[in-house]
Amino acid sequence: MIMMLPFLTLAISIWLSMRGQRSGAISAWVVTFIIFLAWSKYHMTDPLHLSL
Fold first, then answer.
1. Nearest-CA neighbor of 14 among 25, 6, 24?
2. Please, are residues 24 and 9 in contact by the beta-carbon 8 Å criterion?
3. pTM for the complete prediction?
4. Phi, psi (deg, nearest 5) at residue 27
5. 27-39 burial, b for 16+ CB within 10 Å, e for fewer?
6. What is the pLDDT of residue 13?
7. What digits encode the pLDDT tens for the residues 35-52?
8. Residue 19 CA to chain centroid, in angstroms?
9. Distance (Å, rounded) from C-alpha 44 to C-alpha 21?
């Protein structure tokens, strides 16, 4: 379920931009970008567990 969060915030950003609310769309996009940065940092520093 948490994997859907960036898609939801991006969809909100698109919806706001189509309604003409520029500041809200930019804010939602910034939130999406911060989520992507946080997850990228987590996955880059997380040890890779492989079962071979």
1. 25
2. no
3. 0.74
4. -65, -45
5. ebbebbeebeeee
6. 95
7. 989 888 887 887 877 776
8. 21
9. 35
Task: Please state, as a whole number, how many other Cβ atoms lie within 10 Å of the Cβ of residue 9.
Answer: 20
- Write the CA distances from 25 to 3, 6, 13, 29, 43, integer angstroms: 21, 14, 4, 6, 27
Q: In this predicted structure, what is the pLDDT of residue 41?
A: 84
- H or E stretch including 16? helix 5-18
Q: Would you say how long the chain is, in residues?
A: 52
Distance of CA 29 to the CA centre of its chain: 8
